């Protein structure tokens, strides 16, 4: 094989210097920037076109390779596999090799010289050599030249114990701030003594923990692996935080400047209590709604901008809330939900519900039916929800039919359990519930188009549903019910009617109100069997669906 000789592969990852200026700091990316290239998510300060990146140092070139897109750093040949806003990116870097024939003649050689401008190798990488007659140097060339490396020697194939400690494989840390370097493999005796099982020396950089040495596979051809993941530290500019002022900083609202630990420049990070992209502006974290607070059970969490505080509840109030929780089926619900670790239902406290509905103000009321009142709510993160208040009041002494209380509790818990298990997008999504009030509340997604009844006969009667829309709506309802019936745990709605069908802005169906539903689950049936109407079958839903079709004038 023809000797290739030592090749110089000099790839400039970043060639342009950044000088911070007032006009540059005030600049923001355009709204139509490409955010994906293959599997890579691209966020500012990186971008794929002018107007989308901080400067050309942060250019990502998205190339079509066969049937897929691949991202490369600047206009070079180094593939990017991940970008992190904490000042790191992961790339794929080529390995170096030196291969010999049985007489010790070098027949294949390749090493790599890499130059990083404003970027530097992370100390999360290791310089690695694989071989039984091998050693590697990493020559760091810059303001101060230095070298580091390791050696690996063995006279037979080492055990497959995964260790890279000098027996067939060695690793060593790299110096901080390495930005211009060469990775070169060497041999003591040109592999003449180990040629039969190891003809080559391999050298490469790799992210710590991303390479597991296998002697039987790696000493022959390194498993045909030519590229390894490497972590690179990136930063903004060439000045430290104390050398720039706020007007010239790239750190936006609610973020702070942090000096780069591996070279010149700085990065930005969100202040404590905020999240998002610090180069575009960070947003407040609502610790109370995301369960990121440390408030005790006896305390109420109140969100502040950038923080939260805990307020103690009155002792008498706590007792009352706990009684409400138990009376409203909280213990039953907690037991059922604890059996499903994937369930993400949020348990709201009373104050959150009160704030979301503006004190249950009449202007927030969306409707009132036989099973409750529905309010429009606005949570602390400004998301819109629908909040259902059950009627009549559970445990109310004025309720003459005492046996009906158990039915109401069972139907409420039944709806929670059913909705928590449904993933069909045509079914209203349950977000959470509140059991601390005299009557329980369900919190679910807000569907803006109103009920089918509203669109046919009620407040939206001025808008005429065309026949094709009625047919499509009826079809979507039928398809959704069929999906529920054929699920692994079949669900029969039992109360299909226009007021229980919601429509979004596109007039797409959302089936709601599962309070009277029957879920075919043994542990639920044993608890709720005596509360459910007799002879509930799939024919019940078919009959209700026919009535609904007549109502919508499809039949």
From TrEMBL:
Intrachain S-S bonds: 251-268
InterPro entries per the UniProt record, alphabetical: EGF, EGF-like_Ca-bd_dom, EGF_Ca-bd_CS, Kinase-like_dom_sf, NOTCH1_EGF-like, Prot_kinase_dom, Ser/Thr_kinase_AS, WAK-like
Gene Ontology BP terms: cell surface receptor signaling pathway
Molecular-function GO term, any one: polysaccharide binding
All copies of domain EGF-like, residue ranges: 243-283
A Gene Ontology cellular-component term: plasma membrane
Subcellular locations according to the entry: Membrane
Uppermost EC category: transferase
UniProt remark on domains: The EGF-like region is specific to this family of proteins and seems to consist of the C-terminal of an EGF-like domain fused to the N-terminal of another one.
Protein's UniProt name: Wall-associated receptor kinase-like
Source species of the chain: Arabidopsis lyrata subsp. lyrata (Lyre-leaved rock-cress)
Classification of source organism: Eukaryota, Viridiplantae, Streptophyta, Embryophyta, Tracheophyta
């Amino acid at each position: 094989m023809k000797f290739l000789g030592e090749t110089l592969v000099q790839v400039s990852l970043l060639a342009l210097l950044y000088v911070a200026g007032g006009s540059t700091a005030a600049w923001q990316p355009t709204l139509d920037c490409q955010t994906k290239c293959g599997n890579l998510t691209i966020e500012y300060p990186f971008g794929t076109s002018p107007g989308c990146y901080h400067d050309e140092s942060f250019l990502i070139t998205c190339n079509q390779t066969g049937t897929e897109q691949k991202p490369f750093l600047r206009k070079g040949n180094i593939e990017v596999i991940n970008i992190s806003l904490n000042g790191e990116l992961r790339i794929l870097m080529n390995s170096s090799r030196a291969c010999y024939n049985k007489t010790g003649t070098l027949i294949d050689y390749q090493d790599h010289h890499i130059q990083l401008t404003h970027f530097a190798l992370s100390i999360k990488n290791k310089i690695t050599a694989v071989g039984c007659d091998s050693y590697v140097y990493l020559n760091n060339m810059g303001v101060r030249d230095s070298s580091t490396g390791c050696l690996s020697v063995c006279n037979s194939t080492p055990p497959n114990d995964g260790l890279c400690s000098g027996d067939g494989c060695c690793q060593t840390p790299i110096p901080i701030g390495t930005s211009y370097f060469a990775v070169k493999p060497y041999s003591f005796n040109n592999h003449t003594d180990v040629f039969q099982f190891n003809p080559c020396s391999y050298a490469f950089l790799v992210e710590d923990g991303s390479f597991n040495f296998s002697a039987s596979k790696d000493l022959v051809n390194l498993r045909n692996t030519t590229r390894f993941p490497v972590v690179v530290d990136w930063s903004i500019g060439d000045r430290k935080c104390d050398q720039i002022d706020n007007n010239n900083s790239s750190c936006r609202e609610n973020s702070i400047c942090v000096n780069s630990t591996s070279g010149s420049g700085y990065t930005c990070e969100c202040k404590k209590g905020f999240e998002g992209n610090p180069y575009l502006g960070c947003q407040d974290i609502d610790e109370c709604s995301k369960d990121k607070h440390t408030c005790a059970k006896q305390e109420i969490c109140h969100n502040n901008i950038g923080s939260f505080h805990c307020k103690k509840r009155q002792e008498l109030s706590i007792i009352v809330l706990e009684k409400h929780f138990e009376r409203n089926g909280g213990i039953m619900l907690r037991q059922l939900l604890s059996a499903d670790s994937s369930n993400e239902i949020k348990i709201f406290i009373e104050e959150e519900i009160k704030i979301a509905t503006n004190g249950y103000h009449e202007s927030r009321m969306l409707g009132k039916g036989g099973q409750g009142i529905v309010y429009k709510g606005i949570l602390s993160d400004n998301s819109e929800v629908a909040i259902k208040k059950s009627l009549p009041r559970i445990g109310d002494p004025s309720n003459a039919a005492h046996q009906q209380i158990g039915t109401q509790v069972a139907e409420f818990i039944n709806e929670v359990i059913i909705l928590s298990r449904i993933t069909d997008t045509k079914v209203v999504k349950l977000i959470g519930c509140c059991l601390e009030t005299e009557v329980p509340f369900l919190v679910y997604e807000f569907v803006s188009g109103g009920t089918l009844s509203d669109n046919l006969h009620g407040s939206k009667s001025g808008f005429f549903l065309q026949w094709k829309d009625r047919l499509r709506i009826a079809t979507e309802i039928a398809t959704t019910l069929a999906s529920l019936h054929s699920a692994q745990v079949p669900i029969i709605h039992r109360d299909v009617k226009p007021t229980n069908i919601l429509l979004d802005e596109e007039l797409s169906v959302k089936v709601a109100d599962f309070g009277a539903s029957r879920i075919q689950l043994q542990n639920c049936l044993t608890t709720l069997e005596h509360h459910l109407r007799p002879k509930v079958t799939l024919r019940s839903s078919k009959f209700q669906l026919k009535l609904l079709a007549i109502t919508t004038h499809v039949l």
